[in-house]
Model the fold of this input.
Amino acid sequence: MKEFFANMDGTQQFYWYIAIGASVIFIIQTIMTFVGADADTGVDADFDGNLDGGDSPFQLFSLRNLINFLLGFGWAGVSLYNVIENNILLAIVAFLVGVLFIAFFFFIMRALLKLSEDNSFKIEDTIGKTADVYLSIPAAKTGKGKVFISVRGSTHELSAITNSVDEIKNGSLVKVVGIEGDILIVTPLTL
Done:
């Protein structure tokens, strides 16, 4: 290994050391992620509050982003050392590649988190939504009808009742104003 670095000048060695070090740490991080040991802390906390950006797993200043930056910076410096002879220009290009690595990993993480979102149907998500009446809804909660309602991109057929003094005919549009058990309470929409 000494012979490999012996023929290099200091700048080239600098990029190689960064590239190798960042690669080793990146590989360790990746392995730890796949075996589930990538948690930042061992503390479980349960609290309620409104934190701006609290859902976002992306933090600009984190060890993971530092490693991503150094990975791009180091390997760009190694790869472009013989192509770009001006060391300042090489450092600028390597810096930009490092920033691109951070952005690239951000978009990958964002896509992966979308896969893990809970898209299960919850009847509470229907409140305030508009639905199409499928089976007429009897007036004043005297019986149940059926509605088609779209929640999170999927359509559901649910039972519905109304407080309205008039029956709501099929084909009408209604708005969900409440829930009783697993039955929607709707009001007719007037256009």
User: Anything to note?
Assistant: Strands lie at 130-135, 145-151, 154-162, 173-180, 183-188. Residues 43-55 have pLDDT under 50 and may be disordered. The helical segments are 2-6, 10-34, 63-80, 87-115. Residues 59 and 132 are 43 Å apart (CA to CA).
